[in-house]
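Handout, section 4.2: multi-component inputs.
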Amino acid sequence: MKHFITLADLPDFHQTLDLAMELKNQPTKWDAMGKGKTLGLLFFNPSLRTRLSTQKAAQNLGLPTMVMNFSQESWALEFEDGTKMSGLRSEHVKEAAAVVSQYCDMVAIRAFASLSDKEKDEAEIVLRSFAKYASVPIINMESATAHPLQALADAITIKEFQPAHKPKVVLSWAPHPKALPHAVGNSFTKMMKHMDADFIIAHPEGYALNPKITEGITCTTDQEKAMEGADFVYTKNWCSYEQYGQILRTDDEWMITPEKMQRTNDGKFMHCLPIRRNIVAADGVLDSPNALVIQQSQNRIFSAQSVLKQLLENG
Amino acid sequence: MKHFITLADLPDFHQTLDLAMELKNQPTKWDAMGKGKTLGLLFFNPSLRTRLSTQKAAQNLGLPTMVMNFSQESWALEFEDGTKMSGLRSEHVKEAAAVVSQYCDMVAIRAFASLSDKEKDEAEIVLRSFAKYASVPIINMESATAHPLQALADAITIKEFQPAHKPKVVLSWAPHPKALPHAVGNSFTKMMKHMDADFIIAHPEGYALNPKITEGITCTTDQEKAMEGADFVYTKNWCSYEQYGQILRTDDEWMITPEKMQRTNDGKFMHCLPIRRNIVAADGVLDSPNALVIQQSQNRIFSAQSVLKQLLENG
Amino acid sequence: MKHFITLADLPDFHQTLDLAMELKNQPTKWDAMGKGKTLGLLFFNPSLRTRLSTQKAAQNLGLPTMVMNFSQESWALEFEDGTKMSGLRSEHVKEAAAVVSQYCDMVAIRAFASLSDKEKDEAEIVLRSFAKYASVPIINMESATAHPLQALADAITIKEFQPAHKPKVVLSWAPHPKALPHAVGNSFTKMMKHMDADFIIAHPEGYALNPKITEGITCTTDQEKAMEGADFVYTKNWCSYEQYGQILRTDDEWMITPEKMQRTNDGKFMHCLPIRRNIVAADGVLDSPNALVIQQSQNRIFSAQSVLKQLLENG
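Output:
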């Protein structure tokens, strides 16, 4: 793989999962692999799990890291071609990406959706520009439309807690006071296409994800029915895709509660975090032994490490 | 020791001091001890000495670090139980502490006092919440009411410059234009209870420290008399404890001057830094060979290293 | 050398260049040299290339680094002597520099010009104060009036692309919407005095650099004539030195264009970056194979590494 921008960049999804599980068993087995190389981590947005888990993954591979909060510590970037750069942006991504490639053997980037311009968000202008002008692999640490390292960690978690039967997995929208991106919902959906599971997406009217991504997948606006007999309930808020960036409702009808979880088949509760308690899910759901959110966060180490290892082997 | 939140958490104060002295003589004697482990440093407030000395201490033990400016780089945390998280706080400490524990083998935290809510400050809500929900040791890098790593460095410094006789040590309040916390004063006082010294606290009317902490210790409002014959003058400003968070006076009557130092027994001058020159102490005091402030800052490496080493051995 | 604040601090300019070239061929030849030591990087201003290239240089020498954004992460510093520190500044550089010296074996600092007070800028108050009060070497990562690590990287680049004949090198001013410092222009000029080249500086009326620095060097206000037959065109904006900090013009007459480059002897285009496209230089110039800006940025690793190595050998 040249870059890791979406799950589709993986040479083999299931081999990557197997590798991640192997790394979880022996995290430092390849701890000399990164010697002499450098991973750059560039953040355009806040991060807790991604920042720390990716650093830890690199450490397990003996791969030194350099972390930058790009917006605060560096120069404002221009992404448009042919502009007269007379405004606030001091450096073009053409130079920035090429320059960073001189110091880093791989560059991981976090750049969230604007949620104001659907076309630009879908063009993934930050990640795609870096990939175009860098001479080293670019790794997606959550972009405008995708969060593949999270989806990979979620896949590991589902595999670890898999029942004997083919599991039923529900991705359920939940309320949130702020407009949130579709990245996690998108990548989870794409990831589930690789899994042997009955997968269903539940969301209120007006909250359908990008239909190109959900093509072929059952979607419903009946949350309670969707959760019936589910083995895994993955919850996430996103803003409206059709009325791009809008919040259509903030009531708590779609909040995940212990009562709703009782309709499941002793279902596990999943969320990528951060999660707003008693808004997205009630305390009783998160404090239950069936909540897997901390296990998911732990698996972020091994999803990142499996991607870094494959990119190091290419190099 | 499970966590290092106050000096009382140390299994043995004097053995810790001896270990710190040993580490100062041979800083890299145990430089393979931290291999494969990770120390997280989470800052909710500014830091110079603590940030660098703790990193250096970890480096001496071969312990990789991950540093985060939590307020700027991560999500705003909720600490209250049972809240409907509809406001500005995106993540609950329950999740944050558990998640950080997946990536770090120890987590050091700096979270200053609010100085607006005595009860909350005394509950040490940040440090205690992390300690409650983390599955790894929490280390205090200055909390609302305590700065034990500073007190330990101060103890090392006093021991290094100890006269042949039982020393007289004065903790003297000094003026400051801003309302400052009691953490350093509190921890210095608690530390002095372990030392074989005549210890006295001098402060103006209205500036008594928490009486639970100063119980059994001589306190006076006569600074000059307190300094008479002193071997060590430890200076620090704090705001009023009784009229919590208030500044009652800003005149320079209590500033430490060379004239006042002449009343001492060739006394050493100590301060935790940062110090405002010609407000807390005059230039002549700080520029004198009797000032030990830089030595204190150096000993911060070994106070941190002695705590890290003990926690690593537990793990 | 005790500190590296200007090019004049180098014991031997040409041996340093040779060392840099050697390090470029074998970056990790001395990768155990920094063991047990620490390099502190203190930033008072934004940085991309300097931040990452200096870290990478240190990594190549096995030298651990601690990076601080001083203005955001630490305490505001006082630089004046004898002040009553009652304002916003919490710590004096006397203490800060001495303290940092306890934790770091070398300290690299970036502190830009104010462009409002020529006298203070020329006194290099930040770098010189740290050098005065630190007990370890101070390294200039761009100060008010100098950027010697950039100039060293530029010298390496010129050497790498040197024609068979004695080259003609032009330093040309170019327009910019913001008032920029003279540091790069100054250090490039000083560096060129060591090179065997015909060197000429072109700038519009009112934009002469400090005459003490350009003494003995041909200066012209005829950019096109200066570029005639040039082998290297080094471009950089700076604000007026005489009318200190002023922008006298923002028209694009002095922008470097492909047409102007045609007057050169297949001339190479150089710039320290970040560069504003179609303001300082047209897209066609930057996208041409004759642009060496990325090579310059790569050579920042080896200019820094050659300085770090020499300072490590001193210690």
